[in-house]
């Protein structure tokens, strides 16, 4: 039986509608328009595409969108000064500094300078610590989007075996925390894991976030498992040009999985929807309002 395709694009559209409804309420009942600032340092064509689509999605949701494009030679001090201004700006509820930043800038220092309450990426150590101790945090957008899709597809995740492939601070580790919070038995596997296929074969839920095109194949997958593909790899096509593929060999894995996310059209659109969701959440928290329904973990 062929796997169910988890339509991230369609689900993201639903989340964005929810975001829009909350934004309308915030504007009409509280006179506050949530604002998101995205900061991009240097020229990277892929990053510029993401920044543009984030800005467009933000405006479509009825929110304020501010983009700061800084020269690649911008000093760390100037970037920190801009973050300070955005921290103090009452019209800005969310701040995202697009990663990676150029080598002469210390990313950890930059992330630590963002007001944790405005840290819509959830990368500040204070949010990392809050999430890790089960407290109210800002949750990183990609793992949050993956969790929303898993809950939508599977209902309760309680007791399930989850294997996260990849141990990055932006996906693997926070993903594992969220799955643990939903009472999964969680394994974080990575490049040094012995018998990676054998470990992944135990999983009811597989989240692949390694950055290796088509690495996960059908022999790794327990029949019926739910597979979330976080990879976004641009590869050369034999006939010229490039195409986007995930970390999962989609055609192959779809033959045995119960459900699978495509690339593109899976995790990517959900990441952007969750960025908007986090901006609304940050705004609601600042105003002392209840957590916005359907937008948090
Ligand atoms: N501080 C920070 N936060 C981020 O969240 C962040 C970042 N830095 N740096 C770059 C990555 C990348 N990223 C993506 C978001 C959406 C898609 C997306 O919507 N992708 C579409 C396809 C887009 C295309 O065709 O290129 C899809 O998967 O369907 C992709 C990638 C967020 N990132
Ligand atoms: Mg790794």
TrEMBL record:
It catalyses: (6R)-5,10-methylene-5,6,7,8-tetrahydrofolate + NADP(+) = (6R)-5,10-methenyltetrahydrofolate + NADPH; (6R)-5,10-methenyltetrahydrofolate + H2O = (6R)-10-formyltetrahydrofolate + H(+). Residues 6-121 form the Tetrahydrofolate dehydrogenase/cyclohydrolase catalytic domain. GO terms for molecular function: methenyltetrahydrofolate cyclohydrolase activity; methylenetetrahydrofolate dehydrogenase (NADP+) activity. The keyword Hydrolase applies. Pathway: One-carbon metabolism; tetrahydrofolate interconversion. Keywords: Amino-acid biosynthesis, Histidine biosynthesis, Hydrolase, Methionine biosynthesis, Multifunctional enzyme, NADP, One-carbon metabolism, Oxidoreductase, Purine biosynthesis. Coiled coil: none annotated. The keyword Amino-acid biosynthesis applies. PROSITE patterns: THF_DHG_CYH_1 (PS00766), THF_DHG_CYH_2 (PS00767). InterPro entries: Aminoacid_DH-like_N_sf (IPR046346), NAD(P)-bd_dom_sf (IPR036291), THF_DH/CycHdrlase (IPR000672), THF_DH/CycHdrlase_cat_dom (IPR020630), THF_DH/CycHdrlase_CS (IPR020867), THF_DH/CycHdrlase_NAD-bd_dom (IPR020631). Its EC number is 1.5.1.5, 3.5.4.9. NADP(+) binds at residues 166-168, 232. Homodimer. PANTHER family: C-1-TETRAHYDROFOLATE SYNTHASE, CYTOPLASMIC (PTHR48099:SF5), C-1-TETRAHYDROFOLATE SYNTHASE, CYTOPLASMIC-RELATED (PTHR48099). Catalyzes the oxidation of 5,10-methylenetetrahydrofolate to 5,10-methenyltetrahydrofolate and then the hydrolysis of 5,10-methenyltetrahydrofolate to 10-formyltetrahydrofolate. Belongs to the tetrahydrofolate dehydrogenase/cyclohydrolase family. This is Bifunctional protein FolD. It comes from Jiella sonneratiae. The gene is folD.
């Amino acid at each position: 039986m062929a796997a169910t395709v988890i339509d991230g694009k369609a689900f993201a559209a639903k989340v964005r509608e929810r975001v829009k409804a909350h934004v309308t309420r915030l504007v009409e009942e509280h006179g506050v328009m949530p604002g998101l600032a995205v900061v991009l340092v240097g020229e990277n064509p892929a990053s510029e595409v993401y920044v543009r689509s984030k800005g467009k999605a933000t405006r479509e949701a009825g929110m304020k969108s501010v983009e700061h494009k800084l020269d690649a030679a911008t000093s760390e001090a100037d970037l920190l000064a801009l973050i300070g201004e955005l921290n103090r700006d009452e019209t800005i509820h969310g701040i995202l500094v697009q990663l990676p930043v150029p080598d002469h800038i210390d990313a950890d220092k930059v992330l630590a300078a963002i007001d944790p309450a405005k840290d819509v990426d959830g990368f500040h150590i204070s949010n990392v610590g809050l999430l890790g101790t089960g407290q109210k945090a800002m949750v990183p957008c990609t793992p949050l989007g993956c969790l929303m899709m898993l809950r939508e597809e599977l209902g309760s995740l309680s007791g399930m075996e989850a294997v996260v492939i990849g141990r990055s601070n932006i996906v693997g580790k926070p993903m594992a925390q969220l799955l643990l919070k939903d009472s999964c038995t969680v394994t974080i596997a990575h490049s040094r894991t012995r018998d990676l296929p054998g470990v992944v074969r135990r999983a009811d839920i597989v989240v692949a976030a390694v950055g290796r095109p088509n690495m996960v194949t059908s022999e790794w997958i327990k029949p019926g498992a739910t597979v979330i593909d976080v990879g976004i790899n641009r590869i050369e096509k034999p006939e010229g040009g490039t195409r986007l593929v995930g970390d999962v060999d989609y055609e192959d894995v779809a033959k045995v999985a119960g459900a699978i996310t495509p690339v593109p059209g899976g995790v990517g659109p959900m990441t952007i929807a969750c960025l908007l969701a986090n901006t609304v959440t940050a705004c609601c928290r600042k105003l002392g309002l209840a957590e916005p329904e359907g937008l948090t973990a």
